[in-house]
Specification:
Layout lengths: L1 H13 L5 H9 L6 E2 L2 E2 H16 L3 H11 L6 H14 L3 H12 L9 H12 L3 H13 L4 H6 L1
Antiparallel strand pairs: 1-2
């Protein structure tokens, strides 16, 4: 529970949109006996908290470096690649953002953060792939994510 409170504080302190329900179900989990590659879910939560602290401080390259290590565990692929794409978009590295978002879309549909469609749409919009961007914005609208802005595009 203490890790959950820390994640909320990071969210409030740095304004990070954490997709709370997605993160708690796929990252934290708090299954005390469950281990992945020798690392407990609680340790994974602490690692992710450190990543979000780098992100919140604008230390994007450090966050990406840790996210790439975090993605080495296949259970973290969706979350790590989503955040890599999000950060690469902020850095205006649109090709790298698109590559990361594609990796997320190649995973199981249930694991995909709903906000991904909007962010991937923005990436395609900037790259002037308007037809594909519109599809992503419609999916975002249908998921009730940023509905007004999604219809704008």
């Amino acid at each position: 529970m203490n890790q959950n409170k820390k994640l909320f504080r990071v969210h409030q302190q740095y304004g990070v949109y954490l997709l709370v329900s997605f993160l708690f179900s796929s990252i934290i989990g708090f299954s005390a006996n469950k281990k992945f590659k020798g690392i407990s879910q609680q340790q994974k939560g602490a690692e992710f908290l450190k990543i979000m602290e780098f992100y919140g401080k604008g230390q994007y390259f450090e966050a990406i470096e840790l996210l790439e290590k975090y993605a080495e565990d296949k259970d973290n692929l969706v979350t790590a690649n989503y955040w890599i794409g999000h950060i690469q978009f902020k850095l205006q590295n649109y090709d790298a953002a698109e590559k990361a978002f594609k990796k997320v879309l190649n995973q199981s549909y249930q694991e995909i953060p709903a906000n991904l469609f909007y962010e991937y749409g923005q990436t395609k919009y900037v790259k002037d792939d308007l037809k594909f961007a519109r599809k992503m914005f419609l999916r975002s609208f249908n998921k009730k994510i940023k509905r007004g802005i999604s219809l704008y595009y």
